[in-house]
Each structure stands twice: as C-alpha cells, then as structure tokens.
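Example record

Each entry pairs one chain with its bound ligand, flavin-adenine dinucleotide.
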Amino acid sequence: MGGNITAEALDRDERRIGVYICHCGLNIADTVDVEAVANYAGTLNSVAVARDYRFMCSDPGQDLIKNDIKELNLNRVVVASCSPRMHEPTFRKACEAASLNPYLFEMANIREDCSWVHDDREVATQKAKALVRAAVARVYYNDPLEIKEIPFNPDTLVVGGGIAGIQAALEIADSEHKVYLVERDPSIGGHMIQLDKTFPTLDCSQCILTPKMAAVGAHPYIELLSYSEVEEVSGFVGAFKVKVRKKARYVDEDKCTGCGLCQEKCPWTADSEYDVGLSKRKAIYTPFAQAIPNVPVIDRDSCAYFLKGKCRACEKFCETGAIDFEQVDQFIELEVGAIILATGYDAFDPSTISQYGYGIYDNVITGLQFERLSAATGPTGGEIRLKDGRKPESVAIIHCVGSRDQNYHEYCSRVCCMYGLKVAHIVKDKTNADVYEMYIDMRCFGEGYEEFYKRVSEEGVNFIRGKVAKVTDKAVSEEEEGKLVVICEDTLLGSIIRVPVDMVVLCIALEARSDAEEVARKFIISRRADGFFLERHVKLDPVATPSDGVLIAGCCQGPKDIPDTVVQASAAAARVLAMISKGRVTLEASVSHVNEDLCIGCGRCEELCEFHAPKVGIYEKPMPVSRVNEALCKGCGACAVACPTGAISIKHFKPEQILAMVDALAET
Ligand SMILES: Cc1cc2nc3c(=O)[nH]c(=O)nc-3n(C[C@H](O)[C@H](O)[C@H](O)COP(=O)(O)OP(=O)(O)OC[C@H]3O[C@@H](n4cnc5c(N)ncnc54)[C@H](O)[C@@H]3O)c2cc1C
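Structure tokens for the complex follow.
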C-alpha cells in the first residue's frame, strides 16, 4: 500500500479530497502502475491524501476511506477502480458511514475503461492518471444532495399467469400481502398446462401445476384478473398506478357455476388454442377442464350472434342467466409498490422454415402439438396418432428448429434437447416406433438431465448428429413411398442420409413474445438484441430491470426450463418482499431541476421524458413553467439537453462539474 499525504495540501483550501487507487488484485495492477498513479494523485489540487490498495472494495479498503474521512477531515473522496455499476453504492455507503454525504464521492473507472482495454503499461498508466485527474476536478464541484424516502405500497402486480407468475404471486401472497395477478388469457396456466409430462422426471405437468392454480384461485390475498391486460402504467417504485382492461367475457363471473351446458349447446366452433389447432373448441369456451377461473368466455370472432346477429343458444340454456351479451370492457385502477413481469414466451412458428414442411405435410408437427397428442386431455386421449388415425411406425425428431440458426435465432433455446428426448421416450413407450433424433449437440445441463439422455439412449433411439436440410414427400425408392423423407447430413458418418418416417416432430425454439416491444415500452424496460427483456445485470441482478420496482421472471427474460423459471420467480418475489419489509424507498437524488426564472413553459422536456417526470403547468407563477416530479426522474439528462433556455440542470451533473472534467482530460 502506498501513502502520500502532502503537508501543504492541508492548507491549500477548504476542499480536502482523498484519492484511493485500487489494484483490483492484478486486474488493474497488471497493466497500470497504481503506485505511480497514487503518487501523481497526491500532487493534484486539493488532494489531502492519496493511497493505493489491493482491494478497495474489501472491508479493510473501505475502512481506509472511513478512517481518513474522520482523521484527516476529508470532505471529498475519489476511488479509482472498476465500473461505478459495480461498486459506486459500496463506496457511497462507506462515505455515509463516516458521515460524509455520499454525493461528495466520485469514481474513476480505471479497469473497464483502462486496464482491461490496454496492453501498454506506460499508456495505460498515463490514461489512469488522466481519469483520476478528471474525477478529482469534478469532485471539487460536487454538492451534498438530500436523500429522500417515500413509503412503499405493499401491494404487488404480477403480469402473466404461467408458472412464473403463479409461483411469484403465491410466494408474496403467502406472506399475507396483496397480489393482483393479471392474465391475458381466459385462464392462468401458460404453456406448462399444455405439456403432458415434464423432463427429466416425467411427472405429469397438469398434476403438479393444477394444485398451484387452484391455490391462486382460492387465495385470500390474490385478486386474479383473468382475460385482462395492463393498459397504462405510471408512477414509480413504491407507488405505481396501473390501469387494467378487463375484457368482456360476455359471461357474468358471479352468476356462472361452470356447469358447461352453454359450451355443450353452442353450435359454433373454432380451432382450439389449447390443443394448438389439433382440435376444435366452441365459440363459448373454457380453454381446458381445470381452467382457473372456471368461467367460459365468448369468442366474438367465432360466435354467430356477434357475426350474424342470431343464435344466443348459450343464453337460452344457461340456467343461472349468466350470459350477458351487453357486457363491455371494464377499466380497473390499481395502486401497487412493485411489478413482476412474467409474460413468458411465444413458440417459434416453423412454417417460416418452409423446407421442413410444417403446414405443408399433415404429419409434420411441433413439439407443443406433440405434447397435446400425448396428453390424456388432448384430442386423441393420449394416443400418438397420425392425421389419418394410424399409429406411426417411425418418427423423426428434429432439434434446433429456429434456434442456433443465424437465419432465425442465434441463441440456444435451452429446453429443446431435453423435450426432444422426452418426445423420443414417449414415442417409444406408447408406440414402439423407430425413433430418429437429429441433433446438432446434445445439451443436457440440468439436474438428472444427462442421466435422462443415457436412459433414452438405452431405449433404442437412433441418434443422428447433424443438421436437417429438408423434409420431403418425394420418394426415390420403394422404401420411401408414402413416407416423409428427412434429408440430413450425418456429421459423424460424413455423408448425407435419407430417413423415411411417418411423423416428424419439430423441436421449435422459444422466442420473445410478439408484443414484447409494446410491453417493454409500457413498463419502461429494455429488451436484449434477441427480443427478451433485459435484466439489470446478467449475472448479479438477473431479476431486476433498469426500471426500479419492475422485476422479471421466467421465459420473458429468456428461454428456460420449469425449474429455472420457478427459481427466478421465487427470487423476484423475495425482492418484492424485501422492499415491502423495508417499507420505504430511497429516491435517486441526482435528478433534474428547473430554474423557473429561465423556463418558458415550452413543454419540450415533457414531450421528451420517457419517465413522465416533468409537467408544465401554472404553479406559483402566472406563466406556465415546467416542474419535475423527483420521484419519477431517473436523472438521464434528456430534458436538460433539449431545454432551449438552459433552465434545466441535473443535480450532480452541473455544467461546472462536467466542464472541469473536460478541462482536466484536455491537460497533458
Ligand atoms: C414443447 C415444449 C415442451 C416443454 N417441456 C418442458 C418440460 O418437460 N420441462 C420443463 O422444465 N420445461 C419444459 N418446457 C419449457 C416450459 O414451457 C417453460 O419453462 C415454462 O412454461 C415457462 O413459464 P413462464 O411462466 O415463464 O411462461 P408461459 O408459460 O409462457 O406463461 C406466460 C403467461 O403470461 C401470459 N401473458 C403473456 N403476455 C401477457 C400480457 N401482456 N399480459 C398478461 N398476461 C400475459 C400468457 O398468457 C401466459 O399465461 C417446454 C417448452 C416447450 C415449447
């Protein structure tokens, strides 16, 4: 550790800055001469002490800062280490613990911005000195800021009623805090309720999910808003306001007994969403027998009364008078402290890969359709059947359909290898057909997954390593007559092979919801390049988003299996419970501020702000001016840049702070 207290610095002026240079093990010290940087920092204006230390973020590192603040009367601190995203809160807390306002602290990033991107020690050291010089110049002008707290509303909104939303809602509600669960579909359950068995243990998906669904339906602390969608969100962490559209079901939920007579009598049908088009449902329908709530909806697009003005058979037969064709959408205003988004995924549409024949050949089906065929609640009562009712004698399972493919999604969907193996096992078990599994690599990463792969391998499944080029019905031999032929490169044999089969199951990718962009905009969160919602930190904060109080869980954040979905949902619930338990929220102090004497009330700030923080109005002045709701402001600075009169500034980012940095960087 180097030390450098300059005696004359004590008398220079009232600013007494402490500068601390971190080695970060060898992350920084390997490339930057940290002692030289500390010695240099000691010569800078108003620097009272400059030190270097192996790990500034460690307890002894923080103690150094705390002791110096007290013993050397420091009133400003600079730490030169890693990205502020990692440790700014750590060092701000250390300053606070020594009674120094945390905004009198500044950080220079000499790791990501310097040591990690340079090889030349001399150049890196010079750059580190420049970055420290700039931070010292800036901290000189830093002001103490007031840190405000507001109460936290203990009610929570969960959006999406798949396994992620169900798990999160139950965990919060079980601690006797109110949860509003908003589900777009007529019932909760998501994709999991469509599955037959779940890998690797092969438990019946519905058997393990329906008790949780029933618990949601009966929970005194959960208000289930099914067939509903969030229309608008305003407010901020601790105090969100949410407007929900409860879509007209045309069935009175209080009067309906769920007897099912209306569905029996309805003469009109449409493709069943639950059975992925493999069966028909009625125009008035509950998606499946165990639906929660067990109340049907009328689908206007297939109901004869809505299309042609006559029928109303359901109304005639309903003994409780629950059918209500006059029902309209209702709007419900909610106030909540936190929001968990659990909106899940869309299944990739394989008809875009026309060479695989989906939508062209009857017996090319998706993995999700296979789940419905295999389920006892499905259209064939669980029998694996071809379109013409025959039992398949041979089945090909094609992996990575839409995943790991530069033309569609480059990412791996994580569950397809495993559900491909599950399909192979079920086909063997139920039909004893020949099974061909065409894969690129086998990715069996979870608990019991590799063992499941081994088990399926021993069941006589033929594994062919290679990417499928095409599925065709053009036979070139007698053996191929009347069959689907899968043309595939077998990379282990190094040759192109043709495999004639009766059925092809496509292991389709999981992709971001088609409306993910709109949902992200509504909740002011971001998306990754692959379309899924972006977490605050991929490793260290995978449930939070850049929007405080908005958390994500399950497949809306990226493809994952049920165990990982449940873990993430529980983590999101724990986050919410921590906020509820604290009972208050600390607001960001570095927010925008309007000088009302300069403001002309033009409203550009209001138009620009994505957080809806500024509002132009007639306040104390006769002329309209802009005022900022500090609880909404994230201090991004967009308003300050756009303000034509320079009336808006951002606390902690005043022009003199920024210009001092620029001047310091320009020095040599
Ligand atoms: C063919 C196939 C087989 C699989 N087999 C297995 C298996 O055996 N084992 C396993 O571990 N995993 C399996 N999976 C993965 C499993 O489906 C997911 O891990 C799980 O469903 C993710 O749950 P979720 O709640 O995140 O999303 P979803 O199940 O997609 O649920 C999201 C819910 O949110 C609702 N929603 C969406 N948008 C909105 C909105 N804007 N407002 C309100 N509500 C909204 C949806 O209607 C839905 O109810 C399989 C996947 C596929 C495709």
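The pocket of flavin-adenine dinucleotide is lined by residues 159-165, 182-185, 190-192, 195, 198-199, 229, 342-345, 347, 367-368, 371, 415, 419, 422, 510, 513, 519, 554-555, 560-563, 565 (CB under 6 Å).
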